[in-house]
Amino acid sequence: MTGIGLCGRWLYVLSAVGFALAASDAGCSKYSNMTCEQCLINVTCLWCSSTKECLEYPVRNILPPSSLCKLSAARWGVCWVNFEALIIAMSVVGGALIIGLCVCCCCCCKKKKSRKPDKEDERIARQNEQRRVRQEERRAEMKTRHDEIRKKYGLFKGDNAYTRFEN
Q1: pTM, entire model
Q2: Would residue 34 be called left, alpha or beta, if left means φ above 0 and alpha means ψ between -120 and 50 degrees?
Q3: Cα torsion for 107, 112, 116, 119, to the nearest 10°?
Q4: Per-residue confidence band for 98, with pLDDT thresholds at 50, 70 and 90
């Protein structure tokens, strides 16, 4: 019983869709030889300005075929934009977005690379640290040697250089 009800519902839906499609087709052709604005009130309609016909928009195709209407004469949605201008504008905007995205990706990759120290930079930093450590060792050695020489000749200055001589 429910299977028949479901089948009946599907038949009703399909017949309603078919009726709507037939009504919309008749709806567009009745606006032929009128104005573009009157034709484009219905969003399923396409206005061909060269023939002044209101046609059903071919939804199976992205763009209307040239046999139906030339792209430069086809209007859909608004009367002041033809399909050629729309295609060119969309291509320019799409190309600009793609180029902008590529530039952003390149800049981000460059910044990531510059943040991370390079192997060469690490090697140079290691060498500089080794030189600094060797220089400090040499400086300490020289200071000890100079202190020994001062001590040997009595020139060594102790903690207090102003002590009294005691004989």
Answers
A1: 0.46
A2: beta
A3: -60
A4: very high
- Burial class, 73, CB count within 10 angstroms (exposed 0-12 / middle 13-18 / buried 19+): middle
For all residues of the chain together, what is the average pLDDT?
79
In which element (H, E) is residue 63 found? none
Place of tokens 């040697």: 145
Please compute the mean of the pLDDT values over residues 130-148 and round it to a whole number: 95
- Environment class of 54 (CB within 10 Å of its CB; exposed 0-12, middle 13-18, buried 19+): buried
In terms of Cα–Cα distance, which of 49, 55, 57, 58 is closest to 31? Answer: 55
To which residue do tokens 């001062």 refer?
A: 150
Cα torsion 110, 116, 122, 128: sign = positive
CA distances from 8 to 2, 18, 95, 159 (A): 10, 15, 50, 113
Distance from C-alpha of 157 to C-alpha of 12, rounded to nearest angstrom = 114
One-letter amino acid of 11: L
Nearest CA-CA partner of 95 in 87, 106, 83: 87
